Amino acid sequence: MHRIGIWIGVFLTFAIFSFLYKDNPFYKIAEQVFIGISAGYWFIYTIYNILIPNLFVPVTTDLAHNFLLLIPAFLGILMLCRLIPSIDWVSRYALAVVVGTTAGLFFKRYLQSDVLNQLTATMLNPFASSNAAQIIGELILIIGTITGIVYFFFSKKHEGAFGTTARVGIYFLMVSFGAAFGYTVMARISLLIGRLNFLLGDWLGIIKP
Amino acid sequence: MKIFERFLHIDRRIIFVLIAIGVALPLIYPLGFNLEVTENVESVYNLMEELEPGTRILISFDYGPSTKPEIQPMAIALMQQAFTNRIRIIAIALWPMGVQMCNEAFEKVSAEYPNIEYGIDFINLGYKVGGMVTINHMAKDFRSTFPTDAGGNPIDEFPIMKGIKNFDKLGCVISLSAGDPGLKQWIMIAHDTFGKPVVGGTTAVQAPIMLSYVNDQQQLVGLLGGLKGAAEYELLVNKPGFATKGMDAQSVAHLIIIIFILIGNIGYFATMKKDTMKA
After folding, report:
1. Most buried among A62, A71, B163, B226, by the most CB within 10 A?
2. Which residue from B20, B192, B227 is facing A113, i.e. has the nearest CB?
3. How many Cβ atoms sit within 10 Å of the Cβ of residue A151?
4. Which residues does A contribute to its contact with B (CB < 8 Å)?
5. B 172-211 near A (Cβ less than 8 A)
6. What is the C-alpha separation between A145 and A127, in angstroms, rounded?
C-alpha cells in the first residue's frame, strides 16, 4: 500500500513538473485531482471536525446550556443564502456581523502590536551601546524607518529636502524588497529540495530520505 | 553584441534543468559547506536551554504538508532539544493538517527517546478552529478550549495537563507557522496581551515580515526562518537532519540563480548601451 502511494506521488510530481516544458493533459489531470481532493477533504473535515463537535453535539446533548450557539448557526445559514439569487441579500447581515466583529477584535490587537510596540521598538538611543556595529545598525534602523514612512506621505509634493528624504526611503524599501525576494527564492528552492528528496530517497532509494 | 542579445533570450527550460541538476547532485554527493548560526536562531536555542527540566511549553503546529520541507525539520529539532532537556511539550494546531505534522514529528523523535511517555512528557491536543479567538480563549480558559486531546480522551487524565488553566504555567510559546492563523496572532495575544515569551519558526517567505517583531520590545525572542533556520537549529542541537542535508543543494541553487541574474544584467546593460549608441 505504501509503495502504491509512493508511485502515485511520483506520477503526480512529474505531472506537475511537466508544466515547466509546456501545458499538457498530465498536468491538467494532476491539477484537477489536487483541486477535487482538496475540496472534498475540506468539506468532510469541516463537517466532522468543526461543525459536529462545536455545534451539533453541544446543541443536541445540552441545549439549555448551549442555546447561544444557535445564533452563529443561524448566521451561517444566512451566509449560505448567497447561493440562492432571489434571497442572496440576507447574507449581507451575516457578513456585516463577521466584518464588524473582526474589526472590533482586531483593532485593539493590531494597534498595540503593529503600531505602538513597533514604534516603541524604534525609539531607542542608538549611542547607548559601545559596540560600533550595533550603533551603526540602530542608526540605519531609525533612518530607514523614518525615510520609509516619509516616502508614503503623499499630501506634500516630493521635492527639495522632503523629496530627498523620500528618495532615501525608496532605496531602503528596494533593499527590503530585494531581501524579501531572496527569502522567497530560498523558500521555493526548499520546496524543490523536499520534492527531490522524495524522488531520490523514497522512490529511487539513491539517498536516505 | 549578438551574444549579449542571446543572454536576454535564454530558454527558461535550460534554467529549470540546471536548477534541478544543481539541487539533485548535492543531495546525492554532499559538499559539506560550512554553516554559521545567526543571532535570531541562537536566541531561540538559548531560551529553550534556560528552561528548567520539567517546564511545560506550548508548541503550535500552524502549517501543513505544503510547507513541511521547511518547517518540519524545525519541529523535529525543537522536540529533540526539549526531550533532551526534559522539557515537556503541549502540542496544539491552529491548522487542520498541523495535527498530522505533529504526529509525524513526534513519531520520528520518540524513536530516539524511548523514555518519553505520552501524557507525561508530551501531549497532542489536536486542532481547534478560530485562530486569534481560540488563542485568546486559551489564555483565559485553556481547559474549556481543549477539553480533550487529539484522540478524544479528557485532558484531566494526563499528568502533563495538571494545573494548566491558562498560559501562566507555560515556559514559553512556540509557533511553527506557514501563514494565517499563526505566529502573528500568537505574538499579539500570548506576548503583547499576556506577556509570555514567544518564539517562532516560519517559512522563508514570511521571515522578512516576522523579523520586525524581533526587537527591543521582545515581541519575538527569536525566529527560525526557512530551511536555513532549521539547519542552524539542527547544528545547535547537534542532530543534523534533512535541513542540514538540504543546505548544500540550497547554496548551489542560489549560485546558479545568481549567475543567471548576472548574465541577464550583462545582456541588458550591453544591449541598452548598443541601443543608446544607435539612437
Report:
1. B226
2. B192
3. 18
4. 20-21, 45, 49-50, 54, 105-106, 109-110, 112-113, 117-118, 120-121, 124, 176, 179-180, 183-187, 189-197, 200, 206-207
5. 184, 187-189, 192-193, 203-205, 207-208
6. 17
Q: Cβ of A20 and B249 within 8 Å? A: no
Helices (H), chain A: 2-17, 25-45, 57-61, 63-66, 70-80, 91-110, 117-122, 132-151, 160-197
To the question of domain B39-246 being in CATH 1.20.272, the answer is: no
What average pLDDT does the segment B253-268 reach?
Answer: 92
The minimum CA-CA distance between B8 and chain A, rounded to whole Å, is 19
Cell of A126: 542608538
Closest partner residue to A185 (CB to CB) among B68, B187, B257 is B257
Neighbouring-strand partners of residue B88: B56
Distance CA A57, CA A91 (A): 25
With a cut of 90, say whether residue A11 has pLDDT above it.
yes
What is the interface pTM, i.e. ipTM, of the complex? 0.88
- Following DSSP, what letter does each residue of B89-152 receive, concatenated? EEEEESSTTHHHHHHHHHHHHHTT-TT--BTTTEEEEEE-S-THHHHHHHHH-HHHHSSB-TTS
Question: Residue A126: which of A111, A140, A116, A112 has the closest Cα?
Answer: A140
Residue A146 has pLDDT above 80, yes or no: yes
Encode pLDDT of A51-74 as tens digits. Answer: 998 899 999 999 999 999 999 999
CA angle (A173, A174, A178) in 5-degree steps: 115
Using a CB–CB cutoff of 8 Å, tell me whether B167 touches chain A. Answer: no
| Dihedral sign (CA B203, B204, B205, B206) | positive
Question: Counting beta carbons within 10 angstroms of the beta carbon of residue B238, is it exposed (0 to 12), middle (13 to 18) or buried (19 or more)?
Answer: exposed
Question: Is a pLDDT exceeding 70 seen at residue A205?
Answer: yes
pLDDT at position B1 is 61
Confidence of residue B277 (pLDDT cuts 50, 70, 90): low
B35 by DSSP, 3-state: which? coil
In order of A12, A15, A50, the CA distances from A8 in angstroms are 6, 10, 30
Q: With beta carbons less than 8 A apart as the criterion, state whether B178 and B63 touch.
A: yes
pLDDT at A200: 95
Q: What residues does each domain of chain B span? A: 2-25+249-278, 39-246
Residue written as grid cell 514570511:
B206
pLDDT for residue A103: 93
Provide mean pLDDT across the span B226-245. Answer: 95
The residue in chain B having the minimum alpha-carbon distance to the alpha carbon of residue A107 is B188
B58 has a pLDDT exceeding 90: yes
Lowest mean pLDDT among A181-185, B3-7, B145-149: B3-7
> What does the pLDDT read at residue A121?
87
pLDDT of B118 strictly over 80: yes
